[in-house]
Design goal:
This protein is an alpha/beta fold. The chain has twelve helices and eleven strands. The strands form two sheets. The protein has a nine-stranded mixed beta sheet with strand order 1-2-3-4-5-7-9-10-11. Strands 6-8 form a two-stranded parallel ribbon. Helix 1 packs across helix 3 and helix 8 packs parallel to helix 9.
């Protein structure tokens, strides 16, 4: 019969876990595992994993905890913790910001925090139907925008506007910021890339307006429709194009890269409608924009336009949906990617016709100069959300 030292690593691990978990076999579990580590080098390689499997830090009043905030450079939170747990983190940052404002002096509690991420890995492809967005974390994210050293923010923001719970200090901060015209608030001058997920139009504009992100150069925004949320203000099946254009106008002078994506359940796509003009007609003057990625339907509507009888100039809009006119896009645009997010009726052949008319209408010296060859890496219908039917690059 093989001895204890001759047993495989997996068997020893199972035995030691049994000794630790069964009450009474070891008088002190941690002390017993520690003794196993001192018995033999092979036993130590197994028992040491159990010794440090769970670390508990106890802070007592006579020994204050270490001030970790002064050295914190990066913070990453899971979306489940942010939405399902009490908004402890939002209150923590909110109290630091709100308290400093009352004193009229800015004493940063997180002086070197550069990156904050509220991760939504489970929502990268499509909205997770198992997630219950019952909490509103919109007001909790305000303090992140005013961290003195923040350089990158990736935030997932829910849209449950009627939720009465959450960070009340954050709500007070929002109201003060909207009414206060003084210069006492810190300016996030180092914040250049901003990534926002799930947030809807209207609230996007509130963030860009209230945060005063004067140096913002890159914005990544994931539009979302979640039918499980009962909300008549923000989470609706209506895509408000005019509101999107108004929201983007708050960063019209500094944005160089803009990426917009859209997600919802496949079964909900047919229920989506658009409000207002198409985005190409109301597009804000993003004078610095060089790279632009956007769903095709946001520019030209859900369905191809119906052509009237007779010849129609490629430089004229055909109907309410219209077609992509070159002069309606930013003049400094160098890279354009049209995605098939939320697409149902646009076939590859329709997209080819659209792009052909667009290129035929390009004028010399216009926003998209003549002589540049577009790329069309699409696949046969039905299109997939990740397929990009048209990509333009200025060389």
């Amino acid at each position: 019969m093989a001895g204890l030292l001759d047993m495989p690593f997996e068997i020893l691990t199972w035995i030691f876990k049994f000794l630790v978990n069964v009450k009474g076999l070891l008088v002190d579990s941690q002390q017993g595992v520690y003794r196993l580590c001192l018995t033999h080098s092979k036993l130590r390689s197994v028992a040491e994993r159990l010794l440090y499997a769970n670390i508990v830090m106890k802070w007592f009043s006579d020994h204050p905890p270490p001030i970790l905030a002064l050295s914190l450079r990066s913070l990453r939170l899971d979306i489940n913790y942010v939405l399902e747990s009490p908004s402890f983190v939002g209150s923590l940052f909110g109290n630091a910001l709100y308290g400093s404002h009352l004193k009229r002096t800015w004493e940063p509690s997180f002086p070197v925090l550069r990156s904050v991420r509220i991760d939504h890995r489970r929502l990268s492809k499509q909205v997770n139907g198992q997630m219950s967005w019952k909490r509103d974390n919109f007001h909790d994210i305000l303090p992140y925008l005013y961290l003195p050293s923040v350089e990158h923010l990736k935030l997932t923001i829910s849209n449950a506007s009627h939720d009465s719970s959450g960070n009340h200090s954050g709500r007070r901060c929002w109201s003060i910021l909207e009414d206060d015209t003084s210069e006492s608030w810190p300016m996030p001058t180092k914040l250049k890339p901003l990534e926002l997920s799930l947030i809807r139009e209207g609230r996007l504009g509130q963030i860009l307006k209230v945060a005063k992100v004067a140096n913002l150069t890159s914005l990544v925004w994931m539009w979302c429709y979640e039918p499980l949320i009962r909300d008549d203000e923000y989470m609706t099946s209506v895509i408000d194009i005019d509101q999107i254009a108004a929201d983007l106008s708050h960063a019209s002078r500094t944005l160089e890269e803009l990426t917009i994506s859209a997600r919802t359940f496949d079964m909900c796509r047919r229920s989506l409608t658009m409000k207002g003009s198409n985005l190409q007609a109301t597009f804000p003057p993003l004078i610095a924009l060089r790279k632009f990625e956007i769903p095709l339907v946001f520019l030209v509507g859900f369905s191809p336009p119906r052509r009237p009888s007779g010849n129609t100039s490629s430089q004229q809009a055909l109907d309410g949906n219209g077609h992509l006119t070159p002069w309606s896009l930013p003049e400094n645009l160098e890279h354009l990617t049209l995605t098939q997010d939320l697409n149902q009726e646009w076939r590859p052949v329709d997209i080819v016709d659209l792009v052909r008319e667009w290129l035929l209408g390009v004028k010399p010296g216009g926003p998209l100069p003549k002589g540049k060859s577009p790329q069309a890496p699409w696949k046969p219908y039905p299109p997939q959300p990740q397929i990009r039917p048209y990509r333009y690059h200025r060389h």
